[in-house]
Design goal:
The protein is an alpha/beta fold. It has a domain of 225 residues: NAD(P)-binding Rossmann-like Domain (Rossmann fold), CATH 3.40.50. The chain is built from 13 helices and 14 strands. The longest helix is centred in the first third of the chain and has 21 residues.
């Protein structure tokens, strides 16, 4: 049996959609009935309601060991997609608990049961650091622990350490490090907020870069790696490194050409780093006074001006992998909204 944690998230949903086409039994973990109903609706839109019903849905939490142990009964392969995503410093403990402790629980139970192989969905934020003379990152780039890092980045790196521990103790593992994942089905979460913000008239941009990838490519890489004999390896999954300006312009063009939003304009005001840093001070005061979540932390500001690019030759060579064209993909994605 295959077990998927985080079955009601973007990667989890698309992974289950793909796995449901295969013959092996599937079990998926969910936490809330509301999210489960949302995924059920997505399966129905894909005319796959019968496949949804075949999945053994188990309500559990990766921090609830007894419930997790029940979910692992007779499981041979695990896709660990569950994670907490936040860049608010107030969520440091939640990130540690969900991403590091939760992953440790998944690894420990995998080691003590019938699990043969584990695939962990990490992030490019867990990778090493570029330098002034080399901005190209690969799977072996060293991580500078003195660099400014978000709590999310630290938690994903810590989770990877738990997976590597499992590998050292005899568990077959693979790790994927995707960039910002785009995909349909979750219009108010994650990367979809880029599209929503441009649609609502965002006028500012920076010239930093970010790695982007389609969720279908993430799922394809994960399932291919799990079916292979590959173990003890991590793989960067980035289809393209693009500046925020280029991404926002593409999104605006796609929205403008769609029937639903013909008046969308491209962002036109370049924001320099010092301006963002000034705004972060004001935001800090505002957040303290009104108990709001912070967005402009040191780590998020650095990411807005980051110029690192990602070497994806490893995944391409190892499993003969080709990424989808993100220009075409974004256009098709926005047309589906």
């Amino acid at each position: 049996m295959i077990l998927v944690t985080g079955g009601t998230g973007l990667v989890g949903f698309h992974l289950l959609l793909q796995l449901s086409l295969e013959k092996e039994a599937i079990r998926a973990i969910y936490r809330s009935e509301k999210k489960l109903q949302h995924v059920k609706n997505l399966f129905q839109k894909e005319n796959k309601l019968a496949e949804f019903e075949k999945i053994d849905w188990v309500q559990a939490d990766i921090l609830d060991i007894p419930a997790l142990e029940t979910a692992f009964t007779d499981v041979s392969y695990v896709y660990h997609c569950a994670a907490k995503v936040s860049f608010d410093p107030k969520d440091e403990d939640k990130l540690y608990q969900n991403n590091i402790v939760g992953t440790a629980n998944v690894v420990n139970i995998s080691l003590s049961t019938t699990v043969k192989k584990l695939c962990y969905v990490s992030s490019i934020s867990a990778l090493g650091n570029g330098t002034e003379h080399n901005l190209i990152l690969n799977e072996e780039t060293e991580r500078n622990n003195e660099a400014v890092r978000s709590d999310y980045s630290i938690s994903k790196f810590g989770a990877e350490m738990e997976v590597w521990r499992g590998f050292q103790e005899g568990l077959d593992v693979v790790i994927v490090n995707p960039g910002v994942i785009f995909g349909n089905g979750f219009p108010k979460e994650g990367s979809s907020l880029f599209i929503q913000n441009i649609k609502e008239g965002q006028s500012f941009y920076t010239l930093g870069k970010l790695g982007i990838v389609a969720v279908e490519d993430v799922v394809k890489a994960m399932t291919t790696l799990m079916k292979s004999t590959i173990s003890g390896e991590r793989f960067i999954l980035v289809a393209e490194d693009v500046t925020y300006k280029e991404l926002f312009d593409r999104i605006a063009d796609c929205l403008a050409s769609s029937a639903s939003a013909t008046k969308v304009k491209k962002p036109k005001y370049l924001v320099k780093k010092w301006q963002t840093q000034t705004a972060s001070v004001l935001e800090f005061v505002f957040a303290k006074l009104f108990f709001r979540k912070r967005m402009l932390t040191k780590s998020t500001i650095n990411s807005l001006y980051n110029l690192e690019i990602h070497d994806t030759s490893k995944i391409k060579k190892t499993i003969d992998f080709e990424f989808l064209d993100m220009k075409v993909y974004l256009k098709e994605l926005i047309e589906k909204r």
